[in-house]
Amino acid sequence: MAEDRENAIISEVHKKISDAFDVFDHERNKTVDVREIGTIIRSLGCFPTEGELQEFITEIEEEEATGYIRFERFLPTMTKLLMERKFRPIPEDLLLQAFEVLDQEKKGHLGTEELTKYMTQDGEPFTQEEMEEMLSAAADPDKNVIFYKDFVSMLTVDDK
Amino acid sequence: MLLNETRIASYFQIQAMIMGCGTSIETENQGKPSAADGPSKNPSPALTMKAAILIQRWYRRYIAQLEMRRRCTWNIFQSIEYAGEQDQLQLSSFFTFMLDNFTHLNGNGPDLISHLLDSVVEPWTEEGRQAKYEQISVPESYTGPRLTFPLSTTDANNLLTAVKEQKTLHARYVLQLLHETKKFLKQMPNVIYLSTAYAKEITICGDLHGRLDDLLLIFYKNGLPSAENPYIFNGDFVDRGKKSMEIVIILFAFLLLYPDHMHLNRGNHEDHIMNLRYGFTKEVMQKYKTHGRDILKLLQDVFSLLPIATVIDNKVLVVHGGISDRTDLDFLSTIERYKVKSALRLPRCSLEQLELGAGTRQGRAQLGSPYSQGRASRSTRKRKGYLARQSSCSSTSSSSSSSSSLCSPCISSLNTPRRNTPSPCNLPSPSGVLQVPFLDSFVSIAPPEPTREELEWRQVVDILWSDPKIQNGCTPNTFRGGGCYFGPDVTQNLLEKHGLKLLIRSHECKQEGYEICHDGQVITIFSASNYYEEGSNRGAYVKLGPGLVPRFFQYQVSRSTRKLTLQQRVNVAEGSALKALQEKLYAHRSELMTAFQQYDENNTGSISIGDWAQVVESVLRLDLPWRTLRPRLARLAPDGSVDYESCFEDVSPGQPVPQVTPNFAETLYRYRTDLEIIFNIMDKDNSGLISIEEFRQTWRLFNSHLGVDVDDHAIDEMARIIDFNKDGSIDFNEFLEAFRVVHKLDVKEQ
């Protein structure tokens, strides 16, 4: 029984992975561009850091990198990852706390410059494009500040 | 699994500890400000670092999910677009059917569609329409530009200003411009060879599809065409967008002004039958009313005279679609291109051939099960990759297989030279009949030696309709329904054979406006931004200098002043893609329901997600990730299975016409685009009205062609009901409006 359930879960996970992979498999030949791997993993609910992502890619890449990842190499590693819950989801309240850490004066908002500084200089820095996109979504255009509580609820809305 | 959950729990705790030290201290601080130095004022760098990483990880996941939705949306648009191209091919076979079987129908049989079926008139001898524009007077009150030929740069600039100010060029000048363009194009070769030696760089633009804003943006960024700034526009100027006429006018004006520095290649939409479905015919008729027909006639000639290919410095081949394994530039140089009026029209066929064709169609009509009604023809269509995969399995035949899927082979036993054919209007005999492709041909006819005309036609179709693929080989493009897919080996062979090094083509919308494939040997360039929907894609053009190194320039026309966020863009595009899908679902409601119920043995009203996805794909054949899309199309029942009726809930026809059986309504709905095209053809004076009798006849024809079983009584009843003011004629715009989808969801949202 337990084994059946385990198998059923695995087969469900396989389907999810396969569906996500197919969306990026433009040629329908069970390969995707290596640059899309991050999007696929993250869209499956994982939160890898950039470093972890690189490790993952190195693991599934062909010995001689082709720029493409084959499904047969992606599936087992990705399944393992989901089953073992690696790159685990980060709880939402931690996200809010993270903003609060940056909001040193506890104003409830961050200035765009302030946030840009943290996001592009600290951690795994955003590209300029990422930063612009984030600000266009997060910043109040009139006041030039980010009310991060609203932004957090936007990021954490489960659109499934 | 249990183990994992504990692990997560401990992970949370660790995280909470790391993060929490900030928060917990803060809480304490609030009570005891005296202790408030360090962390709350100046959190440690390690802590802000951790906070930043956490936000970055969350944000990147959020963007990834949006990106996933964006890609799904893209796939929906593309699938539906190509399904539409296939529909168009089927519509062409309907015209053939009409001619075969109903030529004497109330005396208006062939006449109905005669202008579609004009025998090819050789533009060299045909001068009847020449002076017509001279007799059209331009009223004093006309405020638009007045042209004098030969055109000057002032004329071209005036035209540009006028279109920016939304002014319409008077029909007289349009006709004159087209006439001059035709005269010019007649003397152009099929393949233009040009050199960049004199100009520093040449600019190549892809599909514009009636998006004037994109053209104006290109000119703004890159300068107007001139001797110093040469351009190639690589086809598909018209259709889909609302300003195709303006684009054509501007491009032709610059063509006449700088004949050596402005080059236009033909695209698959420079085709009068394509224009019927994709909006250009309608646009011309709306803008030019009484002169519309004359303009369309002349455009048909002009389009068929556009060069097929351009070669830069003997090194770069520029064509609209691509190539096939039988593409031969030398042969292409020798053909009479004006004969290929439409890719949807094979050259003339013999009577025997038509008989065979009729047999084929009967075969289809017999497939009368609810599954296959009107569907049989689609079953051959698969997304391109499937095809590619198939082809690699049967690779022995793939590379040698015939490339064009547009046709079952067709022979002409009438080898009389085309140039003696009489003029279009007196053409009741089947000799001028087109033989159109039957995609679902059950009869495979041993291909006889193709005629010269057929070979020429195929060469052109392959150039205008083909797409590249990653796998080697050359396979019919059944996804689009025309042309072929060519692999890197096909590209390599052709380039080698002609001593070329690069192929530039358009024809496919790309998210970034361009794409490079076949190891850098093929470039796709597409210049209509926001093609599927606001924000769906960028447009691009490419410049080649004397070194022939391509440089790409991207842009995106924006209607709103404020930049939309990615999420907003995705929402907009996704909304309209889902609408289109819901319409498809609704149009196939009975088929889907029958199939759903087969899986639902206990009549619970729900089936498993897997079954649901399988049924939807087997009926719609759009090759989409249905499981991923499911949450947006259908609800789950409490037990986690799919409540399958919910996928029709948000869609229903507006103002349902009473007393029409649901089946009939559904059928009408499904074919409304086709019906609209047919109505437009019938409505010669563009009044928007057709007689009830015409309506009946059309519908009956359509019925028997599609093998749909709606009895005469239902049609009569229908006709009676939609004659709203009982004057014996039908306003079919109103009629079609009744079958447009109403989205309950939208109403709720607003």
TrEMBL record, chain A:
Top-rank lineage group of the source organism: Eukaryota
SUPFAM superfamilies, sorted: EF-hand (SSF47473)
Tagged with keyword Plastid: no
GO molecular function: calcium ion binding
GO cellular component terms, semicolon-separated: organelle
Cross-referenced InterPro entries: EF-hand-dom_pair, EF_hand_dom
PROSITE patterns in the record: EF_HAND_2
Domain (EF-hand): residue spans on this chain: 12-47, 90-125
Keywords of this entry: Repeat
Entry protein name: EF-hand domain-containing protein
TrEMBL record, chain B:
Record-given protein name: Serine/threonine-protein phosphatase with EF-hands
Region named Disordered: 362-407
Gene this protein is translated from: PPEF1
Pfam families documented for this protein: EF-hand_7, Metallophos, PPP5
Catalyses which reaction(s): O-phospho-L-seryl-[protein] + H2O = L-seryl-[protein] + phosphate; O-phospho-L-threonyl-[protein] + H2O = L-threonyl-[protein] + phosphate
SMART domains membership: EFh (SM00054), PP2Ac (SM00156)
Coiled coil: none
Gene Ontology biological process terms from the UniProt entry: detection of stimulus involved in sensory perception
UniProt similarity note: Belongs to the PPP phosphatase family.
